[in-house]
Amino acid sequence: MEAQNAINNETRSSYDRIYELKVFDEGKLGVKRLIDAGIQKVSSMFVRLLEDREKDFDTCSKNISVSIINFADLGENNDRIAEIAKEIIMASNEWGFFQVINHGIPNELLERMIKRTQMFHEQDDEYKKKFYTRDFHSKSVYFTSNHDLYKSKAASWKDILYVNARKAGGEIDPEELPLVCKDVMLEFIDRIHMLGNRILMIISIGLGIEPDCLGNMAKDNIGGLQVLHDNKWVNIEPVTGGLIVNFGSILQMITNDVIKAACHRVIAKSVGPRISIAFFFSGIMTSEKILGPIKELTSKENPPIYRNFSIEEAIINLFSNSLDVVGANLNYFRIQHNGKDK
Question: Which of 75, 95, 114, 87 is nearest to 279 (CA)?
């Protein structure tokens, strides 16, 4: 009996972190529940190992400004569109990020979107539990905490309300949205789709391909944000009314590395909650369309760097890895040449 107890104690000790994660996950209320409970000490499940922290890049001490691109008076002015396209391509090469101002989405709508999202997270426990899941492909709208909870070395201090704004068969069913933010979300989704499609059109022009090329592919993806630049973390200071645009791995793969995806992270503020609204232009997950490097951007001298893939494969691969593994998604699709990455 004593020997059996020793084995049980050893097993429990070995899997203590897993046990802690399960207790947290089964609570279905995320990190806000811990705050509401008045915890005095952050759980070890959120603490990164010292050996990992020692490998971190430093934060840049200088005030460096990421590219700010002004869409004012854009209209149908071809010269202005070409000029902005050049600015975006330059920003993608240097930063993988840019901020856009005068984009046409009212500040009032942006502020209301943030406020209503915060109101959802402040709903009573039983209401939020109805949306909680870890089966991310079964629902178009869900609430969760850490997509990579069981894969990352340390959990992130964040909760997520996820809305799949584009799914096969049509637009999202409004009745699936939380009542407290339904109306504002529907308006925001319409506006951000229009802006996103316009940005994809401008990028296409900058790449010298058909203006609707990237848009056709997609139709069938506040203070505290940092971007990795020259091996240092640089603070992205938000511009009032501006939107931060970052390039993702799918865009990098289909442009054959002409557009670079940005490595970024979010750090917690010392006071108050941080609410951010992220919108991903990744296309419809169930689409049968196969993507790959655009032919016009490849040649004999510049062959494809990545293999063909589907949106579903790219998204499943992204969420099957820990989100703190930099470049894992790109490396998975990279073509091997003589046993080496190209």
Answer: 114
Q: Convert the pLDDT of each residue in 187-202 to its tens digit.
A: 999 999 899 999 999 9
Q: CATH number of the domain that 269 lies in? A: 2.60.120.330
How many domains does one find in the chain?
1
Q: From the CB of residue 112, how many other CB atoms can be counted at a distance below 10 Å?
A: 16
Residue 309 falls inside a structural domain:
no
Strand partners for 163 = 141
Distance CA 135, CA 139 (A): 8
Q: Is residue 22 part of a domain?
A: no
Contacts of 19 (CB under 8 A, 6+ apart): 12
Q: How far apart are CA 150 and CA 231, in angstroms?
A: 28
Q: Which two tokens stand for residue 273?
A: 């909650």
Can you give the residue range of the structural domain that contains 143? 27-38+57-283
pLDDT tens track for 266-282: 776 666 677 888 888 77
Eight-class DSSP state of 64: -
Q: Is residue 174 part of a domain?
A: yes
CA distance 248 to 254: 11
Residue 160 has φ and ψ, to the nearest 5°, of -135, 130
Residue 172 has phi, psi (to 5 degrees) of -65, 145
Beta bridge partners of 310: 290
Alpha carbon distances (Å) from 289 to 87, 218, 306: 30, 10, 16
**Domain-embedded: residue 49:** no
pTM value surpassing 0.85: no
